[in-house]
Design goal:
Order of helices and strands: EHEEEHHHHHEHEHEHEHEHEHEHEEHEHH
Helix content: 25-40%
Bound molecules: S-adenosyl-L-homocysteine
Radius of gyration: 31 Å
Strand order of the largest sheet: 7-6-8-5-9
Largest sheet: 5 strands, parallel
Structural class: alpha/beta
Strand content: 15-25%
Length: about 425
C-alpha cells in the first residue's frame, strides 16, 4: 500500500504531531507504554482512539460487521466478548440473504420518485410491499433490473391509485406477549393506528410500532367504555383516511370478542379487513395452569360459555352443561359464581365437582384457586378480573401438571424414589 502511495509510512517513533489533522487513531504497537501515550495524546485532542485488543485504552471499539453494503449490521460486545460477537456474526451472515445490499441500493434509487409520487402516509405501505415482495429479491439476485423496475412501477401505480386503508382484527392472546402469533407481531409493527381495550397487556402494547397512534376504548361493561357503535364508526373513519388500523383484542377476536360485529360494520362501509386469530383465554389459562381442557380419562368435549346474552339475559341450557365427560370454561363469569354454582347443582351436577378459578392467566401475576362447585362462591371472593372459571374433573390434573411459576418441574414421587 505504501509503495502504491495509498498510505503514508513514517518509519519513526511515535510523536504527538502525527495526530495533527487526523480524525481517528488506531494504535497497534506491541508496547503498552507507547499505546498508552498514543491513547492519552488522542484523548487530549478529543480524537477517537482504538488500541488493538485493549478495550481499556480505547474510546471506540470496532464491531464485527455483516456487510451487505449499503446495508451494514454491526455487532459489538464493547470489547467484553469478541468471540461471542463473531459467533453471532456468523449466524447473521447465514441468515441475511446476499441480495440485501442490492435491495437497499435499489430502494435508494427509488426514494426520490416515491417521495414525489406518494404522500408521506402512503410511503411506508409501499416500501413494505415492495421490499417484502419475494419477486423483487429474486429479480435482483439474478441481476434482472428490468423485472425489478417493472415490479416497483406496478406497485407504485397501485399504491398511488388505491390509497385505501384497511382494518386488521388481531388477537392479542391472554397476556403473555410470547403467545402472540408472528402475523400479529408483524401487523402491530406496521400499524398506523391501534385500537385496543382493557384485556390487552402492556407487554403486548410495548410491541406496537412506536409512531403508531394508540387508542384505548375502555373497559367492557363499565360506564367509561366507548360504546360499540362508536368503536365501529372510528374503525371506519380511520381506515377511510388511508390508515392501517389494527383492532387489537384480548385472546381470540372471534371468541366473546364481538369481532364479528365490528367486521359487519366494515363490510357495510366497503373497507377491507383481515382477521388474525389469537390464543383464547381458555387455551392460555389451561396450559399455564396445567389443566388440560380434554383428557381421555376425564373429558371428551369442552364448552366455552358466556352467561351474558346480547340483552344481558341469562338464556343457558344448564341441563346440557351438566352432561358427563365434558369441561366447562366460563368467560366473564367472576361476578356470577353464586349463580353458576347454584344453577349447575340445581341441574344435577354433583356439589363436589372440581372447579378452578384462574386469575390473570399466563401473566406473572397468575393465580389458580381450586375447590369444588359448592365452594365456588367463596373461592371467588378476593379474585380479581380477568378471571376464568373451569369446571370438570380435568381440574384435578392441575395438581400434578402445574408448571408455570414453578422453578423446577413437577415431581413424580414414584419416579423420584
Ligand atoms: N376474546 C377473549 C375473551 C374476551 S371476554 C379471549 O378469547 O380470551 C373477557 C373474559 O375473558 C374475561 O372476563 C375472562 O373471563 C377471560 N380472560 C381474558 N383474559 C384472561 C386472563 N389472562 N386470565 C383469565 N381470564 C381471562
Amino acid at each position: 500500500l505504501a509503495d502504491r502511495q495509498i498510505l503514508r509510512w513514517l518509519k519513526e517513533p511515535f510523536s504527538p504531531w502525527h495526530m495533527d489533522e487526523m480524525w481517528l487513531v488506531i494504535a497497534a504497537t506491541n508496547r503498552r507504554e507507547v499505546n498508552r501515550q498514543v491513547f492519552e495524546e488522542a484523548t487530549r485532542r478529543r480524537l477517537f482512539c482504538n488500541v488493538v485488543d485493549d478495550p481499556e485504552l480505547s474510546s471506540f471499539v470496532m464491531p464485527s460487521i455483516v456487510d451487505r453494503s449499503p446495508l451494514l449490521v454491526a455487532i459489538s460486545s464493547a470489547g467484553q466478548a469478541p468471540v461471542l460477537a463473531r459467533l453471532l456474526r456468523e449466524q447473521l451472515e447465514a441468515l441475511l440473504p446476499h441480495h440485501l445490499g442490492k435491495l437497499a441500493e435499489f430502494a435508494g434509487r427509488w426514494r426520490e420518485r416515491v417521495k414525489a409520487r406518494l404522500p408521506a402516509s402512503a410511503r411506508r405501505g409501499f416500501w413494505e410491499r415492495l421490499l417484502g415482495a419475494d419477486r423483487l429479491g429474486q429479480a435482483l439476485e439474478r441481476c434482472d433490473d428490468a423485472a425489478a423496475t417493472r415490479l416497483a412501477e406496478q406497485l407504485l401505480d397501485e399504491q398511488a391509485s388505491a390509497r385505501r386503508g384497511e382494518v386488521v382484527l388481531v388477537g392479542a392472546g391472554p397476556g403473555d406477549p410470547g403467545l402472540l402469533t408472528l402475523h400479529a407481531l408483524r401487523h402491530l409493527q406496521q400499524a398506523d393506528v391501534v385500537i385496543y381495550d382493557r384485556l390487552v397487556s402492556k407487554e403486548v402494547l410495548a410491541l406496537v410500532r412506536r409512531d403508531a397512534h394508540q387508542l384505548f376504548v375502555g373497559k367492557e361493561r363499565s360506564h367509561h367504555s366507548v360504546p360499540q357503535d362508536e368503536i365501529n364508526q372510528r374503525l371506519v373513519e380511520e381506515a377511510r383516511q388511508g390508515h392501517k388500523v389494527v383492532r387489537l383484542k384480548g385472546g381470540d377476536p372471534f371468541i366473546f370478542g364481538r369481532g364479528g360485529e365490528e367486521l359487519e360494520a366494515l363490510i357495510g362501509s366497503g373497507i377491507g379487513f383481515q382477521v388474525i386469530p389469537g390464543i383464547t383465554a381458555a387455551s392460555g389459562c389451561s396450559a399455564y395452569a396445567g389443566i388440560p381442557l380434554t383428557h381421555r380419562d376425564h373429558a371428551q368435549s369442552v364448552r366455552f360459555v358466556s352467561i351474558h346474552g346480547k340483552e344481558g339475559a341469562i338464556e343457558l341450557n344448564w341441563r346440557a352443561l351438566c352432561e358427563p365427560k365434558q369441561t366447562l370454561v366460563f368467560y366473564m363469569g367472576l361476578s356470577l359464581c353464586p349463580l353458576i354454582s347454584e344453577q349447575l347443582q340445581h341441574a344435577g351436577m354433583p356439589a363436589n365437582m372440581p372447579v378452578a378459578l384462574i386469575e390473570r392467566g399466563t401473566t406473572p401475576a397468575q393465580r389458580v384457586i381450586s375447590g369444588t362447585l359448592e365452594q365456588l362462591p367463596s373461592l371467588a371472593e378476593g379474585v380479581a378480573s380477568p378471571a376464568l372459571i373451569m369446571v370438570g374433573s380435568v381440574v384435578t390434573l392441575g395438581q400434578k401438571l402445574a408448571w408455570f411459576g414453578h422453578s423446577s418441574p413437577p415431581i413424580n414421587p414414584a419416579a423420584a424414589s
